Amino acid sequence: MLVSDLIAQVRSELQEASPGYWSNDELLSWLNLAEADYINRTRLLEDKATMTTVAGRVDYPLPSNWMSTKMVWYHKPDEGGVDHQWMLMPTNLEKMAEETQDPLTTSTTKRDDPSAFWIWGKTLNLKPPPKDDGHTVTMLYESKPIPLTQLTDSLNVDDSLADGPRNYVLWHAWLKEGETDRAMQAKAEYESCVRDGLRYKKKQMGNLARSIDIRTSKPLQGTSRSVGSNPFYYNP
Hints:
Layout: H1 3-14, H2 24-42, E1 46-52, E2 59-61, E3 66-77, E4 83-90, H3 93-99, E5 116-120, E6 123-127, E7 136-143, H4 163-176, H5 180-204, E8 223-224, E9 228-229
Parallel strand pairs: 4-5
Antiparallel strand pairs: 1-7, 2-6, 3-4, 3-7, 5-6, 8-9
């Protein structure tokens, strides 16, 4: 749906078919706030980023539209050039301080293939520091909406969810006009739309009910990282 379509719907509710008391710029400003709030609460938008390792470098800038990290993989080709990857496990600075001596060191003796990551200061940090240049790190993350600037822009949310931002705009528009009852009704409808968005997000994971609930970076076959490994395999 285009911004112009949603604003036309709002104007129809406000009984103002063309800009007057409500300018397009003001409605567009409310619409950006609406999408920001709606996406922050539903986490509907998703994106992917890739980074290239520098030997010994721990921290890598996060994308400007980053909101929260869902999963990170480290890629490493074998001698034949075939790409292999494994999931990096999430951790934090406190756990690293408890579990690792010199957790922030970049010493060459501490470098290896990363096995974990943590977020600090809007950077993705790898543990241990990578030992090689030029390997790829892939991150899947929940993202912020792209700011809307023109009437011809498309909404960031799916058309089926456009009622959410629309009711948010109407909620604040009715408040400005002193129509408290209508504003509270639009707010209630917006809250219902947020719940619809959360259900929409959940339904995208159609195979989740059949997934294996084991938190591990290693697949359930083999005994070494290069070919996949079994989390229950113990090799003293």
